[in-house]
């Protein structure tokens, strides 16, 4: 029982003193494998992975306590591989339902405790789950979410794997292009976000706006992803 006591002590210490890491967005095609890398430090004493607050993998450095998928939750059915040295997690044969938020927690390393969030978007194979949208250059186009946002919802839009808009259902956090696009300002105030549905409108479209737009919504009760391929016809 000593290792259980150590594990609980580490968890309590982490909750009080744990460090936060930057959120990482990862995109993968359905059926492929994807690895979520632990870049903090190799060989920490305790490693834990959560998928939407559900434990999917956990290990102590001396391997006296290990659970991977089936032993923890069973959602992934032997599709998880955990690197015991680095803590990196590989998801094999990915599915659309694997889209969502993954949290890595480590403790007991020389650099202290760490915490990192990965947003994983699994795109449908061969266009399945992708909406094709065509628009004439200069016109506006709206990418419809077909949802009504609740206060606990969080919606993100990506363009070619870069965040361009984000909004929470209670409107406590909103960013569009300039604020959340890593300083690139690609759309320069040509984006309009519907506060009720999270639908995205691109105004005065340009041919350079052609590409993949990924939509992700997360709440306490659900996670959904949708992909739009937008083609802007030049004049």
Automatic annotation (TrEMBL):
Pfam families: V-set
Record's protein name: Immunoglobulin domain-containing protein
InterPro entries: Ig-like_dom_sf, Ig-like_fold, Ig_sub, Ig_V-set
Organism: Cyprinus carpio
Superkingdom assignment: Eukaryota
Immunoglobulin domain ranges (all copies): 23-123, 130-233
Keywords carried by this UniProt record: Signal
Signal sequence range: 1-21
């Amino acid at each position: 029982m000593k290792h259980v006591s150590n594990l609980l002590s580490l968890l309590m210490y982490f909750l009080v003193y744990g460090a936060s890491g930057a959120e990482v967005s990862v995109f993968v095609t359905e059926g492929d494998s994807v690895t979520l890398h632990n870049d903090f430090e190799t060989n920490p004493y305790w490693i834990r992975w959560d998928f939407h607050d559900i434990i999917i993998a956990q290990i102590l450095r001396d391997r006296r306590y290990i659970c991977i998928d089936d032993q923890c939750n069973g959602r992934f059915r032997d599709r998880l591989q955990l690197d015991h040295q680095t803590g990196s997690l590989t998801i094999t044969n990915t599915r659309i339902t694997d889209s969502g938020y993954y949290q890595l927690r480590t403790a007991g390393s020389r650099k202290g405790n760490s915490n990192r969030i990965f947003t994983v978007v699994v795109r449908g194979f061969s266009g399945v789950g992708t909406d094709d949208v065509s628009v004439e250059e200069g016109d506006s186009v709206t990418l419809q979410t077909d949802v009504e946002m609740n206060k606990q919802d969080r919606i993100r839009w990506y363009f070619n794997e870069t965040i361009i808009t984000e909004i929470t259902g209670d409107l406590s956090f909103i960013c569009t292009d300039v604020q959340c696009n890593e300083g690139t300002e690609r759309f320069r105030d040509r984006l309009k976000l519907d506060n009720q549905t999270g639908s995205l409108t691109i105004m005065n479209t340009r041919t350079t706006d052609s590409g993949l737009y990924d939509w992700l919504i997360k709440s306490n009760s659900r996670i959904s992803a949708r992909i739009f391929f937008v083609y802007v016809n030049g004049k």
